[in-house]
TrEMBL record:
Coiled coil regions in record: none
Sequence ranges assigned to domain Endonuclease/exonuclease/phosphatase in this UniProt record: 33-240
Domain of life of the source: Eukaryota
One GO molecular-function entry: catalytic activity
Protein name from the UniProt record: Endonuclease/exonuclease/phosphatase domain-containing protein
InterPro entries linked to this entry: Endo/exonu/phosph_ase_sf, Endo/exonuclease/phosphatase
Transmembrane segments: none
Species per Swiss-Prot/TrEMBL record: Meloidogyne incognita
Length: 261
């Protein structure tokens, strides 16, 4: 695609976003380096932002008076597990799990110290208020590094702890719930797996996730985007692919608190 067509495509997208009939809301962290953000066309009702204590930020939205809560995360990026395994810097499971310590700490901070998230989690479990936990986790999934796929993972089967903590807490990994790990690995990083990356055996994996909790949400389809891996940086500026999920939102009649959330 030539530059003129790329510019025209972006201008068209910007015009759609700025259309008053399609109003978008943006929420970012209050850090100097915001790092995570949320964009939505739903009505914003509440913001969850504790500065830089949590590795992300959250927001509460409503549609036709029905609430939905979302947290966007960007977990610690160093000591990337697949690279450690590739380079044989750690060989035992205990050593590999130790490399995940900072990401586990990020999740612990969210679950133990972020009061807004704790409140939303309780509402999800007790009242089925939908809760989404999304973002770049910088770790693979324990549901991907399994016996049936170990030929793609340096011959290893690893129960990556970060994603396992979430599933044990009642969250569902939407992509893996709808896609077989053998038939659809769902690689999100690196987006453009070029020859140079292949030559240095750079590990490609699924490290971006959309987790959800709350019986009102039913995932119908989950896929990565874009499918064309040969796009230029002007066409797709991220080094990650996006994860897209379509849900049915069954709005049950439940007893919310006086604030409606």
């Amino acid at each position: 695609m030539d530059d003129e067509k790329i510019i025209a495509k972006h201008l068209n997208n910007l015009q759609n976003i700025s259309n008053p009939k399609q109003k978008w809301i943006s929420v970012k962290r209050s850090c100097i380096y915001a790092d995570t953000a949320i964009l939505s066309r739903l009505n914003l009702t509440e913001i969850a932002d504790d500065g830089c204590k949590t590795a992300g930020n959250g927001a509460s939205f409503e549609l036709n008076g029905w609430p939905i809560n979302l947290f966007s995360l960007h977990l610690f990026w160093e000591n990337y597990g697949p690279e450690i395994i590739r380079d044989k810097r750690s060989t035992t499971e205990a050593e590999i799990y130790e490399s995940e310590k900072d990401r586990i700490d990020d999740i612990a901070q969210l679950f133990l110290n972020n009061q807004q998230f704790k409140d939303w989690l309780n509402k999800s479990q007790e009242l089925s208020v939908p809760l989404l936990l999304v973002g770049d986790f910088n770790t693979p999934s324990h549901q991907d590094w399994i016996e049936e796929t170990k030929q793609s993972h340096y011959g290893r089967v690893i129960e990556w702890p970060t994603t396992k903590i979430l599933t044990e807490a009642g969250f569902t990994d939407t992509f893996r719930a709808l896609n077989d790990p053998i038939e659809e690995p769902g690689t999100t990083w690196p987006f453009n797996y070029d020859k140079a990356r292949a030559d240095r055996n750079e590990p490609a994996d699924r490290i971006d996730f959309i987790f959800y909790q709350g019986s009102q949400l039913i995932p119908l389809e989950a896929f990565t985007y874009p499918k064309n891996k040969n796009l230029s940086p002007q066409e797709w500026p991220s080094d990650h692919a996006a994860v897209v999920v379509d849900f049915i939102w069954e709005q049950e009649v439940v007893d919310y608190d006086e604030d409606g959330i």
